[in-house]
Amino acid sequence: MTQPDQKILDEVTRLRAELDDANHRYYVLDDPSLTDADYDRRLRRLQEIETAHPALVTPDSPTQRIGAPPDAGFPEIEHVVPMLSLDNAFSEEELAAFVTRVAERLEVEGDELTFCCEPKLDGVAVSLVYEAGVLISGATRGDGRTGEGITSNLRTLRSIPLRLRGEAHPELLEVRGEVIMSHAGFEALNARARDQDDKVFANPRNAAAGSLRQLDPRVTATRPLEFSAYQVARLKPDQGDATHSALMAHLGDFGFRTSSELAVVKGPAGVIDFCRQLGEKRDGLGYDIDGVVIKVDDLRLQRELGFVARAPRWAIAFKFPAQEQTTRLNDVEFQVGRTGAITPVARLEPVSVAGVTVSNATLHNADEIHRLGVMIGDTVAIRRAGDVIPQVVRVMGELRPSDAREIVFPERCPVCDAEIERLEGEVAARCSGGLYCPAQRKEALKHFASRRALDIDGLGEKLIEALVERDWVTTPADLFRLQAERLVELPRMGQKSSENLVAALSKARSTTLARFIYALGIREVGEATAANLARHFGTLEALMSAERADLEAVEEVGPIVAAHVHTFFCQPHNRETIDDLIACGLHWEEAAVVERPQPLLGQTWVLTGTLESMTRDQGKARLQALGAKVSGSVSKKTAGLVAGEAAGSKLEKAMQLGVPVLDEAAFLDRLAAWETGESDVEERGVTERDAKENSDPEDER
Predict the structure, then answer these.
(1) Helix (H, G, I), strand (E, B) or coil at 294
(2) Interior CA angle at 102 toward 97 and 108, to 5°?
(3) In this model, does residue 686 exceed pLDDT 50?
(4) Separation CA 695–CA 38 (nearest Å)
(5) Across residues 321-341, what is the average pLDDT?
(6) Given a cut of 60, is residue 680 above it in pLDDT?
(7) How far apart, in whole angstroms, are the C-alpha atoms of residue 653 and residue 35?
C-alpha cells in the first residue's frame, strides 16, 4: 500500500473542510452552499482516498456519518454531571410564583431579574462529549445518572459537528440537547413505511427515539433527525461567558444549532408574555414542543441558587396542554380528494387536544385501518401536532365495546357514484369518475387546460376556481359554452380579457388525438402514453372500445395502465363528457393507422442540458415518435444521452458508464437520418463531450 503524498493530504484536508462547512450551512444555518451533486461528488472523492489510504480515516471525517456496522447492544455511560429533570409549572400563576421564589432567595426584586426562555422540544435528550474539539461519545439521558452509549448513531446526524468549528477548541466540552424529528420528516417517514407495508410511528417523538436506538447506525442515517443544543454541562477551560444566552451563542460558533426562538426577558411579566406568544406560534413551528424552558440567565446567579434533590432552583418548565388525547370513534365517512383518492375520516366524540376541539381525524386508507385494527365504537388515541391533520394513532383494544362494528370501504364513489378503483400493490383507492366527479372538478379542469393538454391560453388556476365556485363550469365541455358577455362579471376580467379567453377556447377546439387523450386526465397516462395510444388505435372510437388485452399490446402500456384506461372509458359519465366535448366542436385529424419506421424502438434515451434549436420537450417528442422511451435518469441500459449546454451530473454518469453521448449537432444529424430512414444509431458514431463543471439545475432536481 502506497503512502499518501502531500498532495493527497492537502486534498483530504480541503475536502473535509468543504464538507463540514456544507453540512453546517445546510443543517444548522439553513443556508446551503453546495448543490446535492456537488456535495456528493466531494464525498465520493473523499471516500475513494480513504479507501485507498485507510490510515487517513479519522473519527471526525465526514465519511464516518454514513454509519458503522451494527452494534451488539448499547454500552452504559455514566454522566459525570447528572442529567436532572426540571420542575414544572402549569399556569401563569405558578410561573409568577417561580420568579418570586428565585427573587426572594437572591434577595432582589423579581422585576430586576433576567431569564433566558426557549421552546421545550419534544424529543430525546442526549449528551455529547468533545475532547480537543473532537466528538468522542454520545449518550441518552437514561435515568439521569447512567445512559445508553449511542455514539455511532449520533455521528450520523449532520446537525451534530464531529469536530468543533473554529480554531480555539476547549480541552473539554459536554453539550446537552434534544434530538427531534420535524413534522415534515415524520410524515415522509411514515409515508414510506406505509408504502412498504412497514410499521408506522405514533408521533415524532417516538420516531426519534426509535431511530436513535437502532442497533444498525446505517438505519439511523436514513432517518430525518435533527439536534438542537440547549445546555453546557462541562467546559474546560472556561470561555468567559457570563450568561446562559451568551453561552448558547458561543455554541453556535462551535457549529451547533440552538433554538431560533430563544429570547432573554425581564421579570415575571416578560416570562409570561414569552410563554403566551410561543403558545400562539406553536402550531406553525414545524416541530413538536410541549412547553417553555425558563432559566435564570446570569450564570453566577445560577451557581448561587444551586439545586434541590432532582432539579435546579434556577430553571422551570412551563408545560403546554397535551397534544394527544383519547376519545370514542362514533363513525367513519369517506371523502374524495382533488385527485380522486378516497380517504376515510373518523367522526369522533369531540375532545380537546392541545387546546383545540377535535371531532374529525384522518384514517389515511384501508391499509391503515387494517394496521390499526380499528372499529367503529372503539376508544382511540388522537394526536394533533402543528398543522398536521389530527390522526388516529392507536386503539385501546381492552376498551372495545361488544357492539363495535367493522369499517367497510365503499365500492362506489360517495360523490358521483362512479366505480372505486384500487389496483393490486397500490395503497390508495380512487374514484374513476375523473372528468365528471365534482370533488375532482378543479384539478381535472386545470389539467385539461394545461399547456401540454388543450393549451387554453389565459385559463389559469384562479379563473378556473372562480368558474367552478359560481357553478358556471361543471365539466370541460362547459368551458366552450362561455360567452364574453358573462365573463366580464368575474373579478379582474375586462371586456378585452374576456374576448381573448373566448378566442383561445375557440382555437383550442382544433387539437390532436394525442393531446385530447392526455387532456382527459386518465391515471398514469402521460404525454408519451397518450401519443402511443393515438398512434396505435388511430381513432378515439377504436381506443374507447378497446379491451384490456388490446390496450396491453400498445408500446409502454402494461396491465396497470391498461386497467386505468379501460376503467375510465367504461364509466358512462366519462363517455357522456367526451360526447359533449365533441358536440361543442372539439376535433382533430384522424388518419388510418400507419406503420411508421421506428429505428429506436425498445431503446431508452435521456436528454440533459439546454438545446438551442428546440426545447427538451420537443426533443423528447421527436425521440418518442421514433419509438424511443425517454427517461429522466441514466443507467447501464441507456442507449444514448443527448447533452446540450450546461449538462451536469447525467452527462458525468453517462461517461462513467460508457453510454454513447450526442452533442446537439450530432443529435440533429441523427434525427434527420432516423426520420428519413437513411440510417440508425448503429451505423453512425457518436460525439463525446467533456464533462462540464457547471450543473444543469433541472438535472439536480
Answers:
(1) strand
(2) 115
(3) no
(4) 9
(5) 84
(6) no
(7) 16
Where is 448: in which H helix or E strand? helix 441-449
Q: Answer yes or no: is pLDDT of 679 > 80.
A: no
Asked if 533 contacts 565 with a C-beta cutoff of 8 angstroms, the reply is yes
* DSSP labels, 493-513: --HHHHHHHHHHHHHHTEE-H
In this structure, the chain runs to a length of 701
Least confident of 268-277, 332-341, 614-623, 687-696: 687-696
- Nearest by Cα to 527 from 620, 603, 396: 620
**Residue from 262, 272, 293 nearest 94 by CA:** 272
Q: 118 — phi, psi (to 5°)?
A: -155, 160
Q: Scanning the structure block, which residue is given the C-alpha cell 447533452?
A: 643
Pair 386, 279: CB distance under 8 Å? no
Amino acid type, 42: R
With a CB cutoff of 8 Å and minimum separation 6, the contacts of 365 are 194, 342, 343, 344, 427, 428, 429
Residue 179: what residue type? V
Three-state helix/strand/coil letters over 241-271 = CCEHHHHHHHHHHHCCCECCCCEEEEHHHHH
| This prediction's pTM | 0.49
620 is catalytic: no
Task: Name the amino acid, one letter, at 558.
Answer: G
Residue 601 per-residue DSSP state: T
Going through 142-218 in order, the beta strands assigned E by DSSP cover: 146-148, 172-181
Cα 322 from Cα 314, distance rounded (Å): 25
Whose grid coordinates read 440508425? 680
- Residue 265 scores a pLDDT above 80: yes
pLDDT attached to residue 28: 61
CB-based contacts of 70-76 (< 8 A; 24+ apart in sequence): 70/215, 70/216, 70/217, 70/218, 71/152, 71/215, 71/216, 71/217, 72/215, 73/215, 74/148, 74/149, 74/150, 74/213, 75/148, 75/149, 76/142, 76/146, 76/147, 76/148, 76/149
From residue 150, how far is each of 121, 139, 141, 157, 602 by CA, in Å?
A: 20, 5, 11, 12, 50
Residue burial 71-86, b: 16+ Cβ < 10 Å; e: rest: beebeebebeeebbeb
Annotated active-site residue in 120, 295, 620, 629: 120
Predicted confidence at residue 430, as pLDDT, reads 85
* Segment 484-502 mean pLDDT: 91
Rounded to whole angstroms, the Cα distance separating 355 from 417 reads 38
Q: Using CA atoms, how far apart are residues 564 and 30, in angstroms rounded to an integer?
A: 42
Residue 598 DSSP SS3: coil
User: Which long-range CB contacts under 8 A does 678-685 form with residues at least 24 apart?
Assistant: 680/599, 680/600, 681/599, 681/600, 681/603, 681/639, 681/640
DSSP character for 343?
E
- Cα Rg for the chain, rounded, in angstroms? 31
> Closest by alpha carbon to 420, among 433, 411, 428?
411
Give the C-alpha distances (Å, rounded to integers) separating 315 from 229, 246, 367, 488, 684: 16, 17, 46, 64, 77
Count of CA atoms in the C-beta half-sphere (13 A) of 321: 16
**Mapping DSSP to helix (H, G, I), strand (E, B) and coil, where does residue 517 land?**
helix
Nearest CA among 256, 253, 249, 57 for reference residue 160: 256
